[in-house]
User: Fold sn-glycerol-3-phosphate transport system permease protein UgpE from Pseudooceanicola marinus.
Amino acid sequence: MVENRPFLTFLAHVVLILGVAFVALPVWIAFVASTHDQSTFLSGSMPMWPGDNIWETYGTILGTGAPVPGAPPLTLMLKNSLVMALIITVGKIAISILSAFAIVYFRFPGRVLIFCLIFVTLMLPVEVRIMPTFKVVADLGMLNSYAGLSIPLIASATATFLFRQFFLTIPEELVEAARIDGAGPMKFFRDMVLPLSQTNIAALFVILFIYGWNQYLWPMLITTDEKFYTVVMGIKRMSDVADSDPQWNFVMGSAMLAMLPPVLVVIFMQRLFVKGLVEQEK
Assistant:
């Protein structure tokens, strides 16, 4: 039984409210800025309530696109980011779960060494790997393509490690029972391992989708065609241009729309996400 202490309860709620305000206030300011015209934004006294330009700003962004030189329509950039994030997420999960399954349930020479080599890649900073990866992608003619945006990022040592740790918790009796029933490796994987891994897959899906959606450095390196710009790249270009040609209402509006897909993924999958993390801790 948890003892009810009014002061501690009050203090916990105060801390939670301050935390929510600390996170939500910048988002609210960005939304308010997107609903005012640029003259209000540059006046030095930003209002704290939405303005009258909300339909004009968001209608322009979703229609013809922000009137900023070098910025493609936001709908195109959102599509590019969504395709890249989904390919990265599904690819990472598929490769990682199969790799972990092979390492845990197949007996072959060097499997521990292979896992150690996979795990060591976590210690390599992005700066060490990015230029050799760019050279390979360029030699394969994958610049300015969805394959070039996504395939080099679909390997994940972290996801492989998490799946391996989960598979090690599956009772050996379950494996023996499946073997006695005549289930082969793929049948055991399909009928037993995948259903048991659903919450872990959901938790990783949320994390990896946000990772793929927020990619900036890699798309910036391999993309020169505006048709393949991601939304993060587009917002950065709009903000750079905004220093000389202020269009901050469109920049903030684009940032608000760019937040929606990750937020929706977290909202709709939050129960499975939390459950998957709790099961990992067990």
Notes: The chain has two domains: 6-62, 74-281.
